[in-house]
Amino acid sequence: MLTPYEFLVGLRYTRARRGSGRNGFVSFIAMVSMAGIALGVAALIVVLSVMNGFQDELRNRILAVASHIEIRGLNAGIGDWQAIARLAQGNPRVRAAAPYVLGQAMMSAGDVNRGALLRGIDPALEDTVADIGKHMRAGALSNLVPGEFGIVLGAELARALGARMGDSVVAITPQGTVTPAGTLPRLKSFRVVGVFEIGMFEFDSGLALIHLADAQKLYRMDDTVSGVRLKLDDMFAAPAVARQLLSVVPADAEVRDWTLNHANFFRAVAIEKRVMFIILTLIVAVAAFNIVSAQVMVVTDKQADIAILRTLGAAPSSILTIFVIQGALVGAIGTLLGVAGGVALALNVGTVVPFIERTFGIQFLDKSVYYISELPSDLQRGDVTLIALIALALALLATLYPSWRAAKVNPAEALRYE
């Protein structure tokens, strides 16, 4: 059992006596170990919070443009999309459905040309499956009227083309028109009626929206569509719902959920998060090994004290407990400081990072490379708990060998030259 004297002696050994150079050096090593554990724990909390925030932000921005599930036509598209939508909405988790036409086009304005994905949508239904309408910088999706050939551009695409509201841009489709003079590219002029900005460079620079009926005319699809987009009550249920829908949709249709359409993004983030966790845990492990060296020096310096305690009746288990308490206190204090500092920094990343960027004139995230330009943070209680437990476990393990050596000290040998 833990007795008060064991705790008090262990606590006393964590502090240096005045005028004792050796004890001062040992306490210095203990303080360095404590600081190392605190730094490692804080770094782990901040990095994992940023990775969680990055993953969540990436997912939300992708799903602002994409959909939870897409039912695509494998060959010539889907003819009766309303029937497909009714079949899909028979699943209790499906909340909304909207058709779309997707094709490639070269957008041209003046002397500037940019490749883009041209998506035909029904503005009334699109707002039920995606959040593009919430990210409009100018105009609205309702400005897309069939037959008027209006177009909504991503902000980066509009900037590259130099197109503003009311300007005309020309869409050149890869499907050519056969004439007696040969195959000519199909051209159509569109008027800019809106600009959206998701905040994700891939979509802002490479996506344009037109009305579904205009897209069907442009790509000569008659009444067919490329597919149907679905929104669920829970995005994380998409894989299970997609498997259920496979048994009810026609055989010439493909069902894909958002985790498959953007698997590379989320797999890369998950792998990076796992690797960063392992690497930063090594910082805590190195600090814990410093506890070993400090403890060994304490045991060597305190052999006479250990011998006296043994002769007064202290059991080897009590000696072991004293030094375990000493090392565990260093680890516990370091962990608590690291948790406090890490949580405080993770909750204020949105303030600290912009301040550093303004002060030093640097930019941590280039949105053309990292898809987002602001450093997000999502502090999760489970991550903080796991990190604190790992740090405490490593600190406790680091104390076992020195404490075992202390328990094995022979009183007669230790007092021979005293």
For the structure shown, list the relevant keywords.
alpha+beta, six-stranded mixed beta barrel, 16 helices, 10 strands
Plain-language structure description:
By secondary structure, the chain is of the alpha+beta class. The protein has 2 domains: 4-60 and 265-415, no CATH class; 68-258, no CATH class. The protein contains 16 helices and 10 strands. The protein has a 6-stranded mixed β-barrel, surrounded by 4 helices. It is elongated. The two termini are 31 Å apart. The model has no long low-confidence stretch (mean pLDDT 80).
Q: Beta fraction of the residues?
A: 15-25%
Mean pLDDT: 80
Q: Alpha-carbon distance between the termini? A: 31 Å
What order do the strands of the largest sheet run in, or round the barrel if closed?
2-3-8-5-7-6
Total tally of structural domains: 2
- So what's the overall shape? elongated
Question: How would you concisely characterize the structure shown here?
Answer:
The protein is an alpha+beta fold and 418 residues long. The protein has helices spanning 4-13, 21-65, 81-89, 123-129, 155-161, 201-204, 212-218, 238-245, 258-261, 263-301, 303-311, 316-347, 349-360, 367-370, 381-407, 411-415; strands spanning 69-73, 94-109, 112-121, 136-139, 150-154, 168-179, 182-196, 207-211, 227-232, 253-257. The protein folds into 2 domains: 4-60 and 265-415, no CATH class; 68-258, no CATH class.
Secondary-structure map:
Elements (H helix, E strand, L loop, with lengths): L3 H10 L7 H45 L3 E5 L7 H9 L4 E16 L2 E10 L1 H7 L6 E4 L10 E5 H7 L6 E12 L2 E15 L4 H4 L2 E5 H7 L8 E6 L5 H8 L7 E5 H4 L1 H39 L1 H9 L4 H32 L1 H12 L6 H4 L10 H27 L3 H5 L3
Parallel strand pairs: 3-8, 5-7
Antiparallel strand pairs: 1-9, 1-10, 2-3, 2-6, 2-9, 4-7, 5-8, 6-7
Helix pairs in contact: 1-12, 2-10, 2-12, 2-15, 10-12, 10-15, 12-15
